[in-house]
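A common beginner's mistake is to predict each chain separately and then try to dock the pieces by hand. The better habit, illustrated here, is to supply every component at once so that their relative placement is modeled jointly.
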Amino acid sequence: MSCELKAKDRVGTINPIFTCQPAGAQYASIGIKDCIGLVHGGQGCVMFVRLTMSQHFKESFELASSSVHEDAAVFGALHRVEQGVDVLLMRYPDLKVIPIITTCSTEVIGDDVDGVVQKLEAGLLKEKYAGREVHLIPIHTPSFVGSQISGYDVAVKAIVEHFATKSDKTNGKINLLTGWVNPADVTELKSLLAAMEVDATVLFDIETFDSPIMPDGNHVSHGETTIADLQSTANAIGTIALNKYEGAKAAKYLENEFEVPAIIGPTPIGIRNTDTFLANVKKMSGKAIPQSLVRKRGIALDAIADVSHMFLAGKKVAIYGNPDLVIGLAEYCIDLEMEPVLLLLGDDNGTYNADPRIKALKEGVGFEMEIVTNADFWELEDRIKNKGLKLDLILGHSKGRFVAIDNNIPMVRLGYPVYDRAGGFRHPVVGYDGAIWLAEEMANTIFTDMEYKHNKEWVLNVW
Amino acid sequence: MPYHQFKCSECIPERLQHAVDKGVDEDLTSALPLGYLNTIPGTISERGCAYCGAKHVIGTPMKNVIHLSHGPVGCTYDTWQTKRYISDDGNFQLKYTFASDVKESNVVFGAEKMLKKNIIEAFKAFPQIHNMNIYSTCATALIGDDINAVAEEVMEEMPGKKIFVCNSPGFAGPSQSGGHHKINLQFLNQWVGTGEPEIYSKYVINYIGEYNIQGDQEIMRDYFYRMGIQILATFTGNGRFDDLRCLHKAHLNVLECARSAEYICDELRVRYGIPRMDIDGFGFEATADSLRKIGYFFGIEDKAEQIIAEEYARWKPELDWYAARLQGVKMCLWPGGSKLWHWAHMLKTEIGINVVSVYTKFGHQGDMEKGVSRCEPGALAIDDPNELEGLEAMYELKPDLIMTGKRPGEVAKKIRVPYLNVHGYHNGPYKGFEGWVRLARDIYNCVYSPAHSLVHLDISKDEIPTDKGFVTRQMLSDVNLSDEIKNSTELRECTSDYDPIPRLRKKLEENLYTFPDPETGEWRQVPLEKLKKNKVVDVE
Amino acid sequence: MDKNVAEEKMAQLEWYISKHCLWQYNSRGWDRLIQNERILTKTKQVLRGENAKDDDTTADRYYWSEAMSLAGAFKRYFPWITETSKDDIAQILDLLKERMDFTMVKGSLNQELIKQQY
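With all components supplied together, the output reads:
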């Protein structure tokens, strides 16, 4: 019985699990108030990322392109950044923050985005937009480096680095770097902190990405993290970055630069990790954990007791997606007596073998388990079709849907993007509420499958 | 020129010439926006790139082909699973996508070696597949990889494998349309003329510019087969790589979407003397006219007339049920490039829709000529629209619905305008007679959604009607309808199945079609195998 | 036929073409002139009861198919056509071609028409 960490041994990708860095930077940028990201590259780098996000959220929100065309390959395309910034500022009067997100094309042709930002600050912003607060933030995310995950991490750091400003006194808040989460996760995290009466700066607050149709007005989704929030991150009592790979860079930056103590992880998925998260909040804030959370936790344990050893125990699961999400889910599944036999991480990050959680899995699991890095969906499908892998459940985002469908394996849609189930963004996976939803959703998905396959479906007669 | 000045675009004067209000006395010599010009950065235009135009729109509908993008993984991932082009042999093209996954070291040292490994790996993973399309991307075009040379090498080492190389990096043109152009001509130059097909009918066409969205091609294929016409190849929806190598052998190119595929038709006309016939498969009259024209060409007008009569009898009462209830409904018809002209006039005359605006994301002036001609005076025509202009237009025109893509649909939703997906369709197929009824049905369900009728009520201010626990669509749509129409026993609601395609595939399996022998003219069945997978012999 | 009357009738035919026909929109100007010439000439012949069919090339056959379809539609939409004399039909159709050449090519605002290649 062992857990093995290995990289995919093919060079190519058959059905990718991840997209590239600029997508991660775009996901980070939508969390900032009065912000529109300007992606410096071909138009597809925005159009399709935005399409996927709109499929996931079913919402309207803004992202812009510098629309690099053929001449750029020869002459460079910095003039298109200049024009893009000007056009955005002219037409969006509330706009204050423009992250300029690079792509493979503009990194290969060597456009000096930092230089053009300086030029714009000294010229256009001073002359045409004097008196208006505008922040241009270069974010370097060549697509051939890292993945959407490092793109998110790089972007959060670049944004924090741009804004964080030390003042004389602490703001009394905790910086909470959520990592790549859904609106419902933000709601759950806020509610846990509110119960502890802890004031937090949430990076990024995308709670309102579940936005309404109102009788009047136009309720475009925007992040709610403000410039003031971002500036004061340097004056927090501490930073908790929930995800090692999505936000930790910024947390470490704040620690190194401004001596804001940082705690990285764990991703608060499941009871145990949520307990740890609350312990960290308690340690950092000095606030006690209230009875209301004891009760909330009890409700979650009660829900788990209903499904875990009767239905979930022994179920073999494959999990793919963002590394912190996948690892957190695997840990929780083990607590639920399930066997996460295959974890697929979609990038070639060389530091996974040093991740203490992966080390713990290697030392602790009592069943055969594989963790594949740089993975694609063929790593999953090939094992199922050609190598005898038996699975009871798949956990992951919608791009892997056909592996589940074609192999008759039930699947719970989790992570990003989820477009083939309604309201995916409305369910938290973090915190005690997330633990409840995950346990029950996994059980219900298995129940539906039992019924379709007539596999002891009568068991549920008396549950 | 009756340019339309958007308030939101006053600060970018070059946008002025991209929007036109069609006046009563305007024609194409006085009202035509500019088109297909470089996008203004930062406008939040809706355009995509030339890579997606080639790979995603035109290339990938080809079935049973490994579609490999040579570049970082994002281009592949982002364009994967965002379309609904199905095939009748298992949807490999929807389910599988391949990326060479170029990383930093490849950018520095070149990515040709790893590309070769990639190709071989992919063929090994799917040994039953013998064709591959490779698409370049921004990154690999800029580092100057010679993809063609790598493909040649592999083809030599792996006999029987055929690889088409499409060089259309994302930056190659103002929009996805640049990619349409490139893939058309490159496929023609590399592969057309290399196969000799078996000709089993006297009447042979290529069906060009048809992408089998939700089964469009299969609806039209049924009509063509009922006329005894052999479809040598469809470019590219539900199309086979081998069949497409034989495009030069058809008697006629039937062109559906001129925006994406006129180039290949024009070249086939110049090089092989195959006439190009543009048709409209959307709308009863348009489809009927199209079948008639094709009928004339082959001297089988009677066959066409028979199909038209049968289809009208079967579906017209259903179309008319909706038309009676949709008169005067205001629509913004905001598609990508071709549907503004395919649909505008038929929506007006056959369903009663008042198209108050047309736009095209990536079309050329030629598309706008058709769009402006086919909509009524008063309509607003916009080229390369952007988000704020779209909002301004909707506030001004107050449409009952918009027909557009998924993402702009979300923009509309937030200002209480419902949308129908014009790219992937809501509940298509929409082509042919049955398809047009389905579109009318979807428009009706959208406009008269009882839930949608609640969006304007402000429960904090308005008087809340408390007399109803529910409302049906018909309560909303039939308010001003005459008793004659309400009680009509002839008109009926759509009876098309949720998915009509299995019925057509079953018909094909049962081999119910007959074709005239090319030599004797005798009408007879053709072995099913040939209908599904025609024999193609390699020629030098 | 009085020129104004002929123009008025021509405008009806032009309206039909603008709403229904795609053959007028080939992407290059020289191409459009050929399309107009061949299809409208054959349509004129069909409406005048002359033989318009010559199967020398598939191109001819194609133009004839468009012409047959168009002539049929004209008769359906505009019953006056069947009562119009051959000379008047020639007059109207010649005006129509002149008009189409103008709106679609010579007076066209489409900047892509002058490109030499497809």
